[in-house]
Each structure stands twice: as structure tokens, then as C-alpha cells.
Predict the 3D structure of the following.
Amino acid sequence: MEGRFLVVGLGNPGPRYAETRHNLGFWVVDRVGAEEDWRRRGNALVARWRSGWLMKPTTYMNNSGEAVAPFVRYYKIAPENVLVVHDDMDLPLGRLRLRRGGSSGGQKGVQSIIEHLGTANFDRLRLGIGRPPAGWDAASWVLSRFDEQEREVAERVADAAAEAVEAWQSEGLERAQQRFNGLDLREAQSGG
């Protein structure tokens, strides 16, 4: 990727939410930026990474655009150089998918970014968390923690997603899509 870029991991701030399904985006940017120096900048925690930035909005999920849009405008980052990493109920746990543009799919953090940027033409790395079981509403589901088996899968997804972020930045969207969109991480990969 040429020039400035921004990778935004979506989640909710604070220890209460750290282990929830909704915070998978934070898990990924934490992995990518593990060696970086994170600082508060406006309504976000931000770290320099390569020729761009990593961001974790501190606005809470539903208001993520309040952190992203001012940063993008200030640094004159083209929308197509923005990657938003977020949980997605339309994909099963263990799957991830890179794409550019489209609707928010009901993900309120993504919807907030679309509204505040005034465009949907940015890249997304969608991390599957699956649909809530019978009797659960969406809000309770996304704010719940993974059980032990799910947690193992979620950790594999976060590791693969961190690799996908690096591929997106170094190789571009299409190459990253080819490498990561077909992965199924529900079962542990065993060496042959």
C-alpha cells in the first residue's frame, strides 16, 4: 500500500468488555501493534505502524465514526486506505472475510463510520462470531464471552486476521482476499 493508511480495530474500551465477542477487532490490532507505542489521540488509542497507523476507538462501538472520521480527515487518508476490523454475526466463528465497501450489515460500529466518513468505500476485515443461539438477543450475544472451545477458535481467528492485516498493507486487498477469504479456522490445523 502506497502512502498513509489506517487500520481500525472495533471494540468497547475497558476490562468489562475486553474478552467479549464484540472486541475481536481490538484483539487483532493488539496483535499487529504488540511492539508499538500506543498513545491517546482524540477519542482513540493510536499507534504508528509502518507508513500508517493502528487505531482502537475509545468511543464505544456504536460511536466509532466519531474517532475515525476526524483522524482520517486530519491526516488526509483516502477511504480506500482504511481497513476496519470488526466482528460479524453473518459469518460463523472461525471464518473471516476481507472486502471493500458495501452496507454495514447491521454492525453499528461500521454504520457509524459510514455515516461520519460520508462513504462506505473503505475496506473491512469481517471476523465471524455466528448468530446468537435461541433465546439470545443480538446485544447480549455480542457482549458475551467465548466459552472454552470457542475461545480457542477465536484466538486462531485473531492470529490469522493479524496476518491478513499485514498482507492487506503489504500486498493489497485482492492478494489478501485470495489468501484469507477461504480459510476455515473452526478446526485446529494439524501438520502433515
Notes: Strands lie at 6-9, 39-40, 44-49, 52-57, 82-88, 96-100, 123-128. The chain has one domain: 6-180.
